[in-house]
Design brief:
This protein is α+β, with helices and mostly antiparallel strands and 293 residues long. The protein has ten helices and ten strands. It is flat.
Length: 293
């Protein structure tokens, strides 16, 4: 990556601190009791929200409810028709789970570990705030949970505003350079659409490289070569399985280098424990096209 690097991503994430942090009187002091109570409250809420995910519901039970609604004599015909259409969509989305007969139960211990990992990552991120702000934070753990003082919040406002402007300027440079390079391709790529899409597989055939994304989209790099990130582990996302992990595109750039095109991705690997690994995937080829599902 030339513009949208790991350093840029850290700045981008820090730039949103002001908008997500809340003020609270208890953040003025460092107290183990306050921290533990706050941690438990936030963790319990996290567990509650995660436990309600559709993946933990038995689709056969949901189908019964849909059928009961459809067959209810007091339901109007237009509403029945809408519910029948909803049923078809439900069957399409849950086809794999229904056919396999494999249903999942919520794992609270794993969820607790995931929350702990998320808080750990928050702490590590916020340790990169300027010293003049860090020195005013009584307990970085409480800050990572989303709370700070009025004084710190005021300091964050100009800092985050400046950081957002700088990050936006860098992103615009990356987009402009990508658009310029795309203009020389045999067809328009619209590379920016791959932001936050799942990378499922990387394969090679007859000297060409294929990048497979979710929903069946494929990028074909003609006469391709992986110049960075070869052999890196991928976590193919499975919508039908909880905690499958994923490899997701965080940022993308395209550059023209002499007669070649260089395709740059920043990829985030997340495993079942919410542990995160950022890495670069860079490929070179004489043309890049997309194959839509």
């Amino acid at each position: 990556m030339i513009y949208l690097t790991k350093i840029w991503l850290m700045a981008e994430r820090l730039s949103h601190t002001y908008s997500i942090i809340k003020t609270a009187e208890f953040a003025k002091q460092k107290s183990e009791k306050i921290y533990r109570e706050l941690y438990k409250r936030n963790c319990d809420l996290y567990i509650l929200n995660e436990s309600k995910a559709d993946i933990y519901k038995n689709p056969l039970d949901e189908l019964k409810k849909i059928d009961n609604y459809i067959n209810d004599p007091d339901v109007s015909e237009p509403d029945k028709l809408k519910r029948k259409e909803f049923k078809q969509g439900f069957l399409f989305i849950n086809k794999k789970r229904i056919e396999s007969g494999i249903f999942y139960t919520f794992d609270q211990q794993l969820c607790e570990r995931q929350f702990a990992e998320e808080m750990k990552q928050n702490e590590e991120l916020y340790k990169n705030l300027p010293k003049e702000i860090l020195n005013k934070i009584a307990d970085i753990r409480v800050f990572a949970l989303g709370y700070t003082t009025e004084e710190v919040k005021k300091l964050l406002k100009p800092y985050c505003a400046k950081l957002q402007r700088l990050c936006r300027e860098t992103k615009n440079k990356a987009f402009a350079n990508t658009d310029k390079a795309e203009a020389s391709l045999s067809e328009k790529l619209n590379l920016n659409k791959y932001y936050e899409t799942f990378l499922m597989d990387i394969s090679e055939k007859n000297g060409d490289i294929y990048l497979n994304f979710d929903y069946g989209d494929i990028l074909l790099i003609k006469k391709g070569k992986i110049i960075e990130g070869a052999g890196h582990k991928l976590y193919p996302f499975d919508i039908d399985a909880p905690n499958s992990g994923w490899s997701i595109i965080i940022a993308a750039e395209l550059h023209r280098v002499n007669e070649y095109f260089e395709l740059h991705f920043m990829v985030s690997n997340n495993n079942e424990f919410n542990q995160n690994d950022l890495w670069y995937l860079t490929l070179r080829g004489n043309n890049i096209t997309q194959i839509n599902a």
